[in-house]
Amino acid sequence: MKKLLVILLSVILFSFCLLSAQAATLPDTAVIVVSENASETDTYAATMLQNYLRQGGLELPIVTDNTETAAFEIRIGEAGRTKPALRSATDGAYRIESTDGAIEIVGAGNRGTIYGTYAFLEKLCGFHWYAIDVTVIPDATKIDLAEDILIEYEPAFEYTDTDWLSPRDAQYSLANGLNGGPYRTLSAEQGGTVDYISNFCHTLATQFCAADTYFADHPEYFALHNGLRVPNQLCLSNEDVVEIVKNEVFGILNEKHDPTAAVQIISLTQHDNQQYCQCENCKAIDEANGSPSGSMITFVNKIAAAVKEAGYDNIAIDTFAYQYTRKAPTQVVPLDNVIVRLCTIECCFSHPLNDETCEQNAALKADLENWNKICDRIYVWDYATNYAYTLGIFPDFGVLQSNMQFFRDHGVKGVYEEGNYYMGACNTEFGDLRAYLLAKLLQNPDCDIAAETEGFLNAYYGEGGNAIGRFLAMITENSAKTHHGIYVKMTETLSLTKEEITTCDSFWSEAKAVTADDTAALARIERSELCWRFWKACNKESEFAGLGAFKENRQLYLDIRDLGTTQYCEGSSVFADYNKTLTYTNPDGWNRASSATTANLIAIVMYAAVVILALVIFITAIKTKKYMYVVHLPLLAGFIEVVLWNRRAYLAWKDLGQLALTVILFAAAFAFVAAAASLAANKKKKIAAIAGIVGGISFPVVYFASSYIVNIVIYKELGNQQAIAVAIIAYSVLLLIMLAITELRLKKAK
After folding, report:
1. What Cα–Cα distance (Å) separates residue 624 from each residue in 221, 619, 621, 627?
2. 567 with 573: CB under 8 angstroms?
3. Which one of 41, 361, 384, 415 is at 20 to 30 Å from 510 when CA atoms are compared?
4. What does the CA dihedral 75, 76, 81, 84 come to, rounded to 10 degrees?
5. Are the beta carbons of 151 and 129 closer than 8 angstroms?
6. SS3 for 250?
7. Dist CA 188 CA 199 (whole Å)
8. Residue 146: pLDDT over 60
């Protein structure tokens, strides 16, 4: 009896499931309905829906609303039948609602209906646009549609933008809610782009009142900085400059203004340097406002007021709160058609921006809150990659959602997430994953980020996605132990133990093993693994430890190059041409290397000559009991630097000028040796000893002092200070030891 009941219950449950599945299937007799007078955006949405359903195996016709009502309809936009009421009139807002025999999709503004149609495909049909080459197309004949559907959406931001590779594609951008320029162009039928009709950034003294045009004849138009007029910033208090920029802005408006666009933006932003104007008038404004943003906002307000007065209601004037202008002014207030674009370049990206225990982020939070008090239209320029070591890991995944929610909760109206905009030349990390997650968070800061991540990993890496997810979870958790910005070294990014490194290795091995028969997924895994191998190489871990590192470094170099990578980081193209000099060296120095193979080979020969000559002199002095071998000490400087400083100077030079400095200093060392040897041969041992000692001391002092000046004063890099100190101390200790040995041998000889 019990067995019979179980069978009957199973049959009932199966029948119920079958009926439910049948009831939930989108019928092949359904039609897509648009208005007889449909807008071009509604027409585009309907056609796009039809095309994707067709790819999924379901062919639905498009009809107009003056035809007879069908058994089941998907009504797009202003379709002349029952339309759901929109809760929000914000451009991009939409509502998806089921009624008897229909699903209705209606949106606000230029993009709302298009966004709603993509949301229907994604949320109700199972389509996903994870990357430009990874789109999930389900079986459209088995689409699961619930009986009661109600989805309402209002965009969190009016401007959403990121770069990378996939976000440049129009379909990807529309599906994932990206609307900003300059990295994509959306046609009018696609809803258009929220566009900068000027250049995107750093426009003052470049596009507006350009130094190339005005500086020679009118240096007074430009910043007075440290007592000199410089062509890299404008004098913002100069009324002639105001008039020039105003006229140039109106020239752009006459050419490019689109009155039908929701908003168009003109950027009046400082050049990318610290040389702001310190003339009497600018200084007075800045001191009164407690920040150089005072003169900037005062200047921008004058242009914005003229634009508004001329009737350009959909034009916004954009300026930066960046580096020296990041602090809000205390007196002047931006006009309502002024966008203040706050930049997070100084921040820590291993901790949330609202983490007040993180000093860098606490300062940013305070600045944003102060801008919020005076400005209702704040945009954010955020950063999402490592611009000094782009090949390596940038473990910021743990802060992406909290940071986006932080922006939204503080009234930010637009966000540009600057990532690896040169990804086409440097694609070795998790660029597609980060781009997708940023797009989904810009679309909805409260989205289920764990589910989005899991979906991406499974689609992008196939069966290896689970192992890659565990790797990401481990490094994300570990990264919170340190602070890192957007130029962090690989040696400072993670603090993994030997056991944790072994565990991470096992994740990658597992991912490759389970996708051995999935060519596309395996290729993506091997490409992404390069960032992990790069981290290990820079930290001399696992297979990159010990003598085996030379072989592994070379293989890493070749693998990176063979996958089409030509760029190491922002502005560095060490893979553009094969450089055998680099292949055996530690990758930590590749981005500082000269791409001139000949120059590197000269440097290598120079170092080899130093070491060989030093050994010859040393051995000769011992065998012949010519105890003036102290004169070889200057030649040891190169050897000391290579061994004890843990860097090779010829790989650290940023240009041939620094390489020339090295050559000159070594030439001086050779001159000291030659002079001392000559004196010793003429029995002038005391003078020879003095010459050798002077040479031995002066070379490292001059050399390291020069390095200090070049790195600290010119390139503003502080990281070499400890290395310089260690090298000088090590050299001094060795010098004292050699002098002591010399003295003992002389006494013994007597």
Report:
1. 72, 9, 5, 8
2. yes
3. 384
4. 100
5. no
6. helix
7. 21
8. yes
